C-alpha cells in the first residue's frame, strides 16, 4: 500500500482516456483510494496518451502490431509495469487481450459496455456493442465490471448498472448513456476492491455471469 492506504494501480487503455480522466477526478476528490503508478496504451496517437502525460504519469506505449504474438506483447507490457509494482491492474477501454505476469496476485479488472454475458467476447467493443443492442430490440442495456480471465469478457462479474434503451436512441445516444453509468459504476467497484486490499472493507459481491432478465 501507499501512504494513506491507497492501492497502487496500473491503467491500460487504447483510446480517448475518458475513463482515466474519471479516475483522476475521483482520486482528487478523495472518493477513489487508488494511486495510479503507470499507464499503458496500445496506441500512440490517442487522447489517452495525452491525458497520462498531462497528469505526469509514467507511460508506456506498446502497439500490438510491433510484437509477433499476444504473449510477446504482454511480456513487454509486464516488463514495463514491473518496477512500478502495481497491486491492481485496471483495463480502461483497452482493446487487446491482456495476460498478467505469472504470479501476479492482484485483481485485473475490466469494464464492458453491456450487460454481460450478453454482447461480450472477441469483436464486441465500443460502438459495435451498442449497434448489437439496438439491432436486437432490447429495452435495456448497461455496463459490467468483471475480473479478467484468459478469454474476453468471461471473468466473474463484480457489478452491473442498467440503463434504458429508448425508442429514439441511436448508437451515439445509447453509448453516452452507458458511459455515464460506467463513470459511476467503475469507481464504486474499484473503491470497494481497494478498501478490501487495504484491509478496510468487505469484498464486492461477486457472482457467476448470468443472463439479465428479459
- On the 0-100 scale, what is the average pLDDT? 90
How far apart the termini lie comes to 42 Å
What's the CATH topology name of the largest domain? Rossmann fold
Question: What count of helical segments does DSSP give?
Answer: 5
Query: What is the strand tally?
Result: 7
* Helicity range: 25-40%
Radius of gyration, CA atoms, in whole angstroms: 17 Å
What is the CATH C-level name of the largest domain?
A: Alpha Beta
Indicate the CATH architecture of the largest domain: 3-Layer(aba) Sandwich
Uncertain segments: 205-214
- Per the principal axes of the C-alpha atoms, what is the gross shape? globular
Major sheet: 7 strands, mixed
**Count of the separate structural domains:** 2
- Beta-strand percent range: 15-25%
CATH homology superfamily name of the largest domain: Formyl transferase, N-terminal domain
Question: How do the helices and strands follow one another from N- to C-terminus?
Answer: EHEHEHEEHEEH
- Enumerate the strands of the largest sheet in spatial order, edge to edge or round the barrel: 3-2-1-4-5-6-7
Structural class: alpha/beta
Amino acid at each position: 500500500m501507499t501512504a494513506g492506504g491507497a492501492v497502487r494501480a496500473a491503467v491500460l487503455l487504447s483510446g480517448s482516456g475518458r475513463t482515466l480522466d474519471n479516475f483522476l477526478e475521483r482520486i482528487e476528490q478523495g472518493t477513489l483510494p487508488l494511486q495510479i503508478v503507470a499507464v499503458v496504451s496500445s496506441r500512440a496517437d490517442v487522447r489517452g496518451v495525452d491525458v497520462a502525460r498531462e497528469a505526469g504519469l509514467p507511460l508506456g506505449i506498446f502497439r500490438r502490431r510491433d510484437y509477433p504474438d499476444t504473449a510477446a506483447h504482454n511480456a513487454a507490457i509486464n516488463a514495463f509495469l514491473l518496477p512500478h509494482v502495481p497491486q491492481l491492474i485496471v483495463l480502461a477501454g483497452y482493446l487487446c487481450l491482456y495476460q498478467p505476469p505469472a504470479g501476479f496476485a492482484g485483481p485485473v479488472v475490466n469494464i464492458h459496455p453491456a450487460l454481460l454475458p450478453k454482447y461480450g467476447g472477441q469483436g464486441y467493443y465500443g460502438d459495435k456493442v451498442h449497434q448489437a443492442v439496438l439491432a436486437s430490440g432490447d429495452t435495456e442495456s448497461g455496463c459490467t465490471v468483471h475480473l479478467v480471465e484468459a478469454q474476453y469478457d468471461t471473468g466473474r462479474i463484480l457489478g452491473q448498472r442498467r440503463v434504458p434503451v429508448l425508442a429514439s436512441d441511436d448508437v451515439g445516444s445509447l453509448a453516452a448513456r452507458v458511459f455515464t453509468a460506467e463513470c459511476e459504476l467503475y469507481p464504486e467497484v474499484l473503491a470497494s476492491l481497494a478498501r478490501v486490499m487495504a484491509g478496510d472493507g468487505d469484498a464486492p459481491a461477486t457472482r457467476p455471469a448470468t443472463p439479465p432478465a428479459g
